[in-house]
């Protein structure tokens, strides 16, 4: 019995491994390009030798990680580098996913951190059949780019029905591309991607590129985000909180303490006596939830202003000269029947008290 259980367990393990290998095989087929920069880019990427592009690219670790990337090492330089694909990637046959990571390790004051997807040199420009012109379209409302010092991942998903999705850190961002000469296509006619390049002129160094991906399945991009980007981002986020917490908490806590002391003194003012309980309740609520301190301040200021204005304008009443009330006039000059009856009615005679004679 035990031997049969062992055989069944081994068979289950073999089947599981085969299933995993099968999935990995197809996942690899869906990946057109994946550059993790685990190894040096020398000999695999082509650094531009064009005049003026003298920025030095370096193969460096991301700060605080053992993960390598492609680093912009000097400020105030032009940079250019390109990676050719083994074969051009078609954008007409199905979904194509473009994804890469960047980290602004020293922030970003003036510069760029983007990729270019290059068509084959022999390919011609696609002409708009409606206008007959070649037009470069830009996003009308491009998604905002985080300017912190954390690692972020950017994803573009191009689908065969002309749908375009933009993700930042895995979250979809909506926009529009203004196009007065819009026309319908049954299938997109994008030129194939022959290479990936970076061409920037930046005043900022410390920009790190990593995990550049071109794939035919959204699941591949999602898996890479979960396994490479998310762990780094979580570590960086926690470190950021730890670095900011000591200084920020002490300063904010001391400031809030003084604010609360002042508010309690304000609540004791005599002209606010009717509202003291309400003000005290707001202060106590703010002490329990410091994040609402500003809202409480605004509420108390509104109460004070209301009471103050009431004291100024509500305590003084303008003198109003009392005028005799007008006698109502009727449209009938002769008056109504009841009025005539009242006018003709003679005053009633005084009632005399009847005297009773007392009989003996």
UniProtKB/TrEMBL annotation:
<protein>
    <submittedName>
        <fullName>CALRETICULIN AND CALNEXIN</fullName>
    </submittedName>
</protein>
<keyword id="KW-0256">Endoplasmic reticulum</keyword>
<feature type="transmembrane region" description="Helical">
    <location>
        <begin position="291"/>
        <end position="313"/>
    </location>
</feature>
<dbReference type="GO" id="GO:0051082">
    <property type="term" value="F:unfolded protein binding"/>
</dbReference>
<dbReference type="Pfam" id="PF00262">
    <property type="entry name" value="Calreticulin"/>
</dbReference>
<keyword id="KW-1133">Transmembrane helix</keyword>
<dbReference type="InterPro" id="IPR018124">
    <property type="entry name" value="Calret/calnex_CS"/>
</dbReference>
<feature type="compositionally biased region" description="Basic and acidic residues">
    <location>
        <begin position="321"/>
        <end position="339"/>
    </location>
</feature>
<dbReference type="GO" id="GO:0036503">
    <property type="term" value="P:ERAD pathway"/>
</dbReference>
<dbReference type="InterPro" id="IPR013320">
    <property type="entry name" value="ConA-like_dom_sf"/>
</dbReference>
<comment type="similarity">
    <text>Belongs to the calreticulin family.</text>
</comment>
<keyword id="KW-0732">Signal</keyword>
<keyword id="KW-0143">Chaperone</keyword>
<keyword id="KW-0472">Membrane</keyword>
<dbReference type="GO" id="GO:0006457">
    <property type="term" value="P:protein folding"/>
</dbReference>
<feature type="signal peptide">
    <location>
        <begin position="1"/>
        <end position="27"/>
    </location>
</feature>
<dbReference type="InterPro" id="IPR001580">
    <property type="entry name" value="Calret/calnex"/>
</dbReference>
<dbReference type="GO" id="GO:0005789">
    <property type="term" value="C:endoplasmic reticulum membrane"/>
</dbReference>
<feature type="compositionally biased region" description="Basic residues">
    <location>
        <begin position="351"/>
        <end position="360"/>
    </location>
</feature>
<keyword id="KW-0812">Transmembrane</keyword>
<dbReference type="GO" id="GO:0005509">
    <property type="term" value="F:calcium ion binding"/>
</dbReference>
<feature type="region of interest" description="Disordered">
    <location>
        <begin position="318"/>
        <end position="360"/>
    </location>
</feature>
């Amino acid at each position: 019995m035990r031997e049969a259980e062992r055989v069944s367990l081994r068979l289950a393990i073999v089947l599981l491994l085969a299933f995993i290998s099968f999935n990995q095989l197809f996942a690899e087929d869906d990946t057109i390009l994946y550059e993790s920069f685990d190894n040096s880019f020398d000999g695999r990427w082509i650094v531009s030798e064009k005049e003026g592009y003298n920025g030095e690219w370096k193969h460096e670790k991301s700060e605080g990680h053992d993960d390598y990337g492609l680093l912009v090492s000097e400020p105030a330089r032009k940079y250019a580098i390109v990676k050719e694909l083994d074969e051009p990637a078609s954008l007409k046959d199905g979904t194509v996913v473009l994804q890469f990571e960047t980290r602004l390790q020293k922030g970003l004051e003036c510069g760029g951190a983007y990729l270019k997807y290059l068509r084959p040199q022999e390919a011609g420009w696609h002409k708009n059949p409606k206008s007959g012109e070649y037009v470069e379209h830009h996003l009308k409302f491009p998604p905002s780019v985080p300017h912190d010092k954390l690692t972020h991942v950017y994803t573009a998903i191009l689908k065969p029905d002309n749908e375009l999705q933009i993700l930042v850190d895995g979250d979809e961002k909506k926009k529009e591309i203004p196009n007065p000469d819009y026309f319908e296509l049954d299938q997109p006619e994008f030129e194939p991607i022959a290479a990936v390049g970076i061409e920037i002129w930046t005043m900022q160094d410390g920009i790190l590129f990593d995990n550049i991906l071109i794939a035919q399945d959204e699941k591949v991009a999602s898996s890479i985000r979960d396994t490479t980007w998310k762990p780094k981002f979580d570590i960086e986020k926690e470190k950021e909180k730890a670095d900011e917490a000591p200084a920020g908490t002490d300063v904010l806590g001391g400031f809030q303490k003084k604010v609360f002391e002042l508010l309690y003194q304000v609540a004791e003012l005599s002209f606010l006596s009717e509202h003291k309980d309400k003000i005290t309740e707001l202060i106590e609520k703010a002490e329990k939830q410091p994040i609402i301190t500003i809202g409480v301040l605004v509420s108390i200021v509104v109460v004070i202003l209301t009471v103050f204005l009431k004291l100024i304008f509500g305590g003084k009443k303008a003198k109003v000269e009392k005028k005799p009330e007008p006698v109502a006039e009727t449209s009938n000059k002769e008056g109504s029947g009841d009025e005539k009856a009242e006018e003709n009615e003679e005053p009633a005679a005084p009632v005399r008290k009847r005297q009773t004679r007392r009989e003996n």
